[in-house]
Design a protein that fits this description.
Distance between the termini: 57 Å
Number of domains: 2
Number of helices: 5
Shape: elongated
Radius of gyration: 22 Å
Number of strands: 0
Largest sheet: none
């Protein structure tokens, strides 16, 4: 796993109490801290879907599935889209 991710692993043969003083450990820690944990994303997505279902906004499973497909296609088409980029202050009076 270390090799696949390009994470230094030389510190593993040293006493763990010394790890925080080593540059290779600090480099490994920096890489690992940037990794996204899949389970966190999955848990968030499940919670969002549960909230959507419980909200009563969808009259059927078909409606919900259609919305999920639209969201998936939008995320593929606009991978860097964030809500703050999509929302604009209205300037029309």
């Amino acid at each position: 796993m270390f090799m696949t991710l390009g994470v230094p692993d030389e510190f593993l043969v040293v006493d763990p109490e010394l790890w925080t003083t080593r540059d290779d450990y600090k480099a490994a820690e920096a890489i690992v801290n940037t990794l996204s944990v899949t389970s966190n994303h999955a848990e968030r997505d499940v919670a969002l879907i549960q909230d959507a279902v419980q909200s009563g906004h969808f009259k059927s499973e078909t409606q919900l599935q259609y919305v999920l497909q639209v969201i998936k296609k939008s995320l593929i088409k606009f991978p860097d889209a964030k809500s703050r980029h999509c929302l604009r202050k209205q300037t029309d009076s």
